[in-house]
Amino acid sequence: MKNFLIVANWKLNGNIKMISSFFETLKLNLSAYANKSTIVFAPSDVYLERVYQCINDMNIFLAAQNVDINLKGAFTGESSILMLKDIGVKYIIIGHSERRLFHQETNDFIAKKFLLVKKLKLIPILCVGETEKEKQNGQTKQVIKEQLSCIFQKLGNSAFRNTVIAYEPIWAIGTGFSAHPKDVQLIHEFIKNYIRKHDPSSINETIVQYGGSVNHSNAKEFLKQSDINGLLIGSASLNPQEFLKIIRIACHITGE
Ligand code: PGA
User: Fold this and answer.
1) Quick one: fold of 5-215+226-235+244-251?
2) What's the mean pLDDT in 204-224?
């Protein structure tokens, strides 16, 4: 039986009113599905505690969208892994393409964060994926290989045990143009083989999910692919009804 990891990445969206009504709707409708997938919310750091209060009696977990590379000290404006852990965060998204692009985060910098997140026993969700130009040039696998090999270099062959990799083709994020599920399956297979090459027995401990314009109309086709273990959902996760539809789809596939 497949147990999917469904992560809602709210990015720089949401407010107190939206959070209250979102989780009221979820509470009324989720119970039948809640145990069949692992559901995670990644609101802005500002609202992590508020979301934590809302999900407290539900089988839902909390993720941060980013974290600093330092644990404490004179680093104005940052949040540390220790702080996030302190307030109940379980997962941390690392290396989202929006951070790579708008905050100039490099593979090496992201690998350092990944190392620290693992060391402090939280679960990193590492985002990888190619730009449109890289895709056109046939460089997708090479780009992903570089994004992953940087992590292997820092953490050794068992780096990806108990972690999550989110394949997010950059051209599909927030554009309404998702990748084709069969193409995504091939990339996920490639990612899993690459990990298996380093650590033959670890592959069942690595979740590989897809992100990029996922919604209730395309979720089923993605989740039906054998190497897609979950979804990282941006804009469609901001609407509780839309998000519930995706959870229901995941639940039905799990039950098949
Ligand atoms: P999207 O975002 O679903 O809005 O494309 C996905 C993501 O960036 O994680």
Assistant:
1) TIM Barrel (3.20.20)
2) 96
